[in-house]
Specification:
The protein is α/β, with parallel strands linked by helices and about 525 residues long. The chain contains 18 helices and 22 strands. About 40% of the residues are buried. Bound molecules: nicotinamide-adenine-dinucleotide (NAD) and (2R)-2-hydroxypentanedioic acid. The site of nicotinamide-adenine-dinucleotide (NAD) has 33 residues, from helix 5 and helix 7.
């Protein structure tokens, strides 16, 4: 099977070598498309690779009928409608590490340019003005740098600022006093950081919560004479409020790499001499561009060829060593889900998943997703996948609970899936036998030993002599061969079950005839 990959923003040619080297991948590079053009063309592609320019909107995603993966060569995914991608079962991957160094160096270049008026002085010189008085700067040494957002880039900036002998104080919702102490920096609330800093640098993502984080109120808290840098995302600083703060002489310098609207030809902030700017160049180094393109290309190739990805954005990332432990259970988890939904044939209100034995000791979220995928697939079709299974369950109002126990009922590992419906609960348990693969070992309260594969028939009946014979003759009349058969019962003459593996799918009329046998309570055909 061949996959078509569209690259719609300029990516490093060296960086996309993993894509070029992969078998069965056709690459089309088409940069500078309008949204309408992209929406028109996206239907032919299995993967889309972008930087920050292409806006991957809900409309484009919904027109990507074959689209399976969107790769973002960089960190910020605010140009991709993540909810729409998740709803459509499209995985989004990014390259969070490849441009950290470049962005941190750019931030430092901005801080140093600001402190010494380098762009303004250069501009004056170019205009034949030798002016030394106007461009007297300030030293960074002993000044306080306020870092808002101490993630990858914020941390790297901190290290460099300390090298400049600056005092650093940071705010990040995940920063503790102990961690700050270990890093040799100060720690405070956002208000404290804003009010103590001589220079402020922003390194948060652009989220609902961080849009206009630096607004008129934030500027009021700052020292008069503060200088501010934004190499994170436009929109985190309210540009109108920044304009006001600069004209009111509260802020005496601003260095901006990112803007509320990009690209632009006019932005009134650039009319102010206190503002220096670059056109979103934080990640624009040869090294960073190659590195992010390599990372994202590897993930796209990996995903299209059925391997796990390193940097999923809309799926929790699972470390490789944990993935190796849980991957063998994926198939069983999905099959248990499929089995149970066939058995239940009712509206599911709640799904309870019990992990026992070895399974209770590992990260099981991917197994939960596979189980739910199996449960939903029968009715929602093959577009249910790891990415959207939990979202779709939530949208259907189904509650999902996971629990772990060390009690294994004699198995080294046991995965039990239970669904709650209006009429009660149904359960199936499976185990992975070393070297033999998965087995269904329990259905409701009955013990069985069945490989979850092929055509199964689950029969609930009254325990009575002759019932097995009558069932066997009926199937024989229809030329249906029984490959394996298991029976169990609650007590003599009480409720009993049969689990058959047959060689072909049972037709509706054949099921009805089986159900019509006197001892039968219920007969369900299950195809796995
Ligand atoms: N200019 C560029 O070309 C360029 C290049 C790379 C990254 N970026 C941008 O830089 C930013 C940081 O990237 P990163 O790789 O360091 O991300 P990161 O995820 O490693 O770090 C972001 C940090 O922000 C913190 N945060 C979230 N909300 C916050 C809030 N309200 N207040 C304070 N901190 C908050 C998070 O806890 C996290 O530690 C992103 O916006 C990214 O898109 C820009
Ligand atoms: O594509 C770019 O050059 C910008 C990337 C940068 O903003 C990011 O978030 O990684």
């Amino acid at each position: 099977m061949a996959f078509n990959v569209l690259i719609s923003d300029p990516l490093s040619e060296d960086g996309i070598q993993p894509l070029r080297a992969a078998d069965n991948i056709n690459i089309k590079i088409d940069t500078g498309l309008s949204n309408e053009e992209l929406a028109d063309r996206i239907g032919d592609f299995d993967a889309l690779l972008v930087r920050s320019q292409t806006q991957v909107t809900r409309d484009i995603i919904s027109k990507g009928k074959k689209l399976k993966i969107i790769g973002r060569a960089g960190v910020g995914v605010d140009n991709i409608d993540l909810n729409a991608a998740t709803e459509h079962g499209i995985i989004v991957v990014n390259a969070p590490n490849g441009n950290t160094n470049s962005a941190a160096e750019h931030t430092m270049a901005m801080i140093m340019s600001l402190s010494r008026n380098i762009p303004q002085a250069y501009h004056a010189l170019k205009n034949h003005k030798w002016d030394r008085k106007r461009f007297v700067g300030v030293e960074l040494k002993n000044k306080t740098l306020g870092v808002i957002g101490l993630g990858r880039i914020g941390t790297e900036v901190t290290v460099r600022a300390k090298g400049q002998r600056m005092n650093v104080i940071a705010y990040d919702p995940f920063l503790t006093e102990e961690k700050a102490e270990k890093m040799g920096i100060g720690y405070g609330t956002i208000e404290e950081v804003l009010s103590k800093a001589d220079f402020i640098t922003i390194h948060t993502p652009l989220l609902k919560e961080t849009r206009h984080l630096i607004n008129a109120r934030a500027f009021q808290l700052m020292k008069t004479g503060v200088q501010i840098v934004n190499c994170a995302r436009g929109g985190i600083i309210d540009e109108e409020a920044l304009y006001e703060a600069i004209t009111a002489k509260k802020v005496v310098g601003a260095a901006l790499d990112v803007f509320e609207k990009e690209p632009f030809h006019d932005n009134k902030l650039l009319e102010l001499p206190e503002v220096i700017a670059t056109p979103h160049l934080g990640a624009s180094t040869f090294e960073a561009q190659e590195s992010v393109a390599v990372d994202v290309s590897h993930d796209v190739v990996g995903f299209l060829t059925g391997e796990s990805v390193q940097n999923p954005v809309n799926l929790p990332s699972v470390p490789k060593e944990i993935m190796t432990k849980i991957e063998p259970y994926f198939n069983m988890a999905e099959k248990l889900g499929l089995f149970l939904i066939d058995l239940t044939q009712e509206v599911v209100e709640e799904i309870n998943i019990y992990y026992a034995g070895e399974l209770s000791e590992i990260e099981v979220a991917p197994l939960t997703r596979n189980t739910v995928k199996g449960l939903l697939k029968r009715h929602l079709g093959d577009h249910v996948n790891d990415v959207n299974a939990l979202y779709l369950a939530e949208r259907k109002g189904i509650t999902i609970n996971e629990s772990k126990t060390s009690k294994t009922k004699g198995f080294t590992n046991l995965l039990t899936v239970e669904v709650k419906t209006k009429s009660g609960k149904r359960q199936v348990s499976g185990t992975l036998l070393n070297g033999l693969g998965p087995r269904i070992v329990k259905v409701d309260n009955y013990s069985v030993d069945v490989t979850p594969e092929g055509h199964l028939v689950f029969i609930h009946h009254k325990d009575q002599p002759g019932v097995i014979g009558r069932m066997g003759s009926l199937l024989a009349q229809h030329q249906i061969n029984i490959a394996t058969m298991q029976v169990d019962r609650s007590d003599i003459g009480g409720d009993a079950i049969m689990m058959l593996r047959v060689d072909k799918h049972l037709q509706e009329n054949e099921l009805e005839e089986l159900k019509a046998l006197a001892e039968m309570y219920d007969v369900t055909a299950i195809d796995l």
